């Protein structure tokens, strides 16, 4: 197992790594919607969705992969009432990258780190 580190995604805010490469898989830690340069988070849940996906993409790109290599996402959401906004941003992301939709789980949670509205982790394969 090899840790993945990139300046194109936010640094880990705890005792974990941005992602790992293991055999033919790349697995990211949950990605908050922080802009890696400004360290700020957009207010809008759709923008947060896109930023979280872009952060995950930056990590898998560091390992030589792209959005088409993502086979599974897990989406942690603060409020499922915003599901349609999240879905629209999620769909647009994969269309923009000309990538097929991966398998997905979506879970509503009580709270996320830094009071984010969303956190997304991905599994990609070579």
From TrEMBL:
InterPro entries: RidA, RidA_CS, RutC-like_sf, YjgF/YER057c/UK114. CDD domains: YjgF_YER057c_UK114_family. Belongs to the RutC family. GO terms for molecular function: hydrolase activity. Keywords: Hydrolase. It comes from the Bacteria. It holds the Pfam family Ribonuc_L-PSP. This is Rid family detoxifying hydrolase. It comes from Zooshikella harenae. NCBIfam families: Rid family detoxifying hydrolase (TIGR00004). Gene3D superfamilies: RutC-like (3.30.1330.40).
């Amino acid at each position: 197992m090899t840790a993945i580190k990139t300046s194109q995604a936010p640094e880990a805010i705890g005792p974990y790594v941005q992602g790992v490469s293991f055999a033919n898989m790349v697995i990211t830690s949950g990605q908050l919607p922080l802009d890696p340069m400004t360290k700020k988070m957009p207010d809008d849940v759709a923008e947060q969705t896109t930023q979280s996906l872009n952060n995950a993409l930056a990590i898998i790109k560091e390992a030589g992969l792209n959005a088409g290599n993502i086979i599974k996402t897990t989406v942690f959401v603060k409020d499922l009432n915003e599901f349609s906004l999240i879905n629209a941003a999620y769909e647009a992301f994969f269309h923009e990258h000309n990538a097929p939709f991966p398998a997905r789980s979506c879970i509503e949670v009580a709270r996320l780190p830094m009071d984010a509205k969303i956190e997304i982790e991905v599994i990609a394969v070579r």
